[in-house]
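Re: Re: token formats

Sure, here are both.
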Amino acid sequence: MAPDPWQRLVLDDWLAERSGKWASLTCGLAVPRQNGKNGVLEIRELFGMVGRGEKILHTAHEVKTAQKHFRRLKYFFGAKADDPGAKFPELNALVREVRNVNGQEGIFLHNGGSVELVARSKNSGRGFTVDVLAMDEAQELTEDGLEALMPTTSSAPSGNPQWIFTGTPPGPFANGEVFKRVRAEALSDKPKRLTWAEWSIPDRSVNLSDKRVWFATNPALNLKRSNGTYALQFDVIEGERARFSPDGFARERCGWWRDDATDSGPFPPGQWGRGTDPESTIPEVSRVSYAMDISGDRAHSHIAVAGKRADGVPHVEVVASRAGTDWVVPWFADRVSLDSPMTVVVQERGAPASSLIDELDAIEGLTVVRWGGVELGNATARLYDLVGLSGLFHADGALCEDPSRCTREHERRGVAHLPQPILDVAAATAVPKILADGGMAWDRRKSPTDIAPLVAVTGALWHAMQRDEPEHRSVYEDRGLMTIDL
């Protein structure tokens, strides 16, 4: 394996020694995706197990990622030493055992060196004693995962342990506190036995369409390898720039680290405001969906509606918001009929609004859609993605930064909403959380304000985007003049 120049730079730092031990106990690497980060880990692990007899534990966030890395390493050791077709007979001769059991994959050598691969969990480090702990996908490394893994090197057989963290900048919904903390130490005045390599933009003020930025943050871009292939192709990045949200492209392709101290709210800075359209409306006859939600203290209830505008852009708004809960059922009962049916989405399984499901179900003409589990995560992700794409765009796809002064024609994208303070505040203060199945949702307990308006909008949008919803008449309450009774 011939490392790329940037990979050699990283490995020279990782393998630097001082007084017979690694100069760096902790090694960190943050580089945009598909540049060859795993190639660095391969070389480090092959060198450690073959050249030094180290015991290595490679961990990843997901099982499939760990298994993929195992297959790459197994390529060097999979054949028998006397196999005429063996590509690496000298490596095959070192093998004592290759373990292929799902969840217990590992390669064990006669010199005592080994590499074992596991997906991280609260107990994934139990029973291991190793010299090197490699934590790939570190942007998803949780505190529980770290606490389970770190003791594996407390009694490192070599007496010379090393911890390796590799990944990309954490997204707004990632469990990235550990990776952020390692980076913060590296950037501090007095980091201890630590090396950190990072390719990134300094902040979001840079021009993301500038090709020089792409080259500066992607060390493998247009780098031609010995086999004639390119490590990372230029036209692929051009496609990503056209498809990703601005913040998504900045993070995933340009290595941007979001500053949580200054960037408030769950959405990319400025993106929620770009979806504001005071004139936005749903056609009088269209497919619409309602959702209702109640604040955690049951002090206020909110009803939202969602549908598609005449130009096809999804529209959301809060149509009723009042104190208490006793008004919700009558509100729907007064507006629904067999000639004008309605659908309302209500979060179930212990959510505040679930207490009204039975009463709403009893209203003739009203269909109650119970909402939760995987669909809750999908709904939140859908809203988040659409907000990230929101704004007015020119025909060439460029975002219009100041529509009030621009004379060119615009096209709205993403999701549109009215300027409603009760919804804007919820969107600016909601705290996201990761669900057990890996999805996302809005965290009521950690959010500093009532986020029920945003939860209602999330549910209404999710259902409105379903294709099997029948056409029926939109119903609004005091449209444009909504009064909030507090």
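Second one below.
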Amino acid sequence: MARAAGFSTILPPVPSGELIFANVLDERQRAVDGEAADGFVYLLAPGTRAFPFHVVRDYKAPTGYLAEEVQLIAPSGRIAHRVGPRAAWLSGMMDLTRLEDRIDDTPFEEFGTYLASFLLDGELLGQTEFSVVLQAAPEKLPKEYEDGFRKSDVIWVGVEYKGKDVTIPAWFAYRNGRVLLLSSLEPSLDEQSVPGVPDAKDMVIITRRKLRETALDRIHAAARILEGPEWEAAAALLADRRRSRPGPPQDAIKRWRGTCAIAELTPILP
């Protein structure tokens, strides 16, 4: 009697879970329109950090810890930001597990439509789109920030490096919601050399209480290097602002041409 040929059944892999809802949206937008609104993330300029935004997602998955990862993928296909992978506790298939992150330190180089990909244990469970768009900077800051700039002759300014601030006390001019900052292109005893100028797009500003060595506000700012007529106009304002300037303003401006950069810093406020 012939024996039946042996066989095996290959079962499809059991999915790690199910993505029920996900969104990526600006913190202010979420507060006004709710978390189900079309997602937007706002920048002041390419390469600067975004205004604070939230990544919200709901899963159904077996009870226990799973490795969760979120990838924010730019229009070019590059991963612009990654959350995780990290262990996340899932409450079980009968319940929704809400996970969310507030992100306030991520720069974006590209505008346009992004994809947020959500993975559990390396398996892609779903994606959602959101848009990274340009936001016009206000010409006036809230009163507490305006006072911090108008009532001080010096700010501490520089860059954040490996989680620490690298800043110097610097004189500056303030106009229409923006800080104007002069920095020597080469180390100099004649002019201040500010860390991050002219290359950094994201800088740190710390204002001080007048006549006291205590911090008032620490904020990030989008940096833009001025050129041509904008440089000339800013130089005139800075020369007038500099109280310790030797000689007439025109002499200082002439000395700065070709040797100093002028950065325009736009505060990124929550």
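DSSP finds four helices and 15 strands in the chain. The radius of gyration is 25 Å.
- S.
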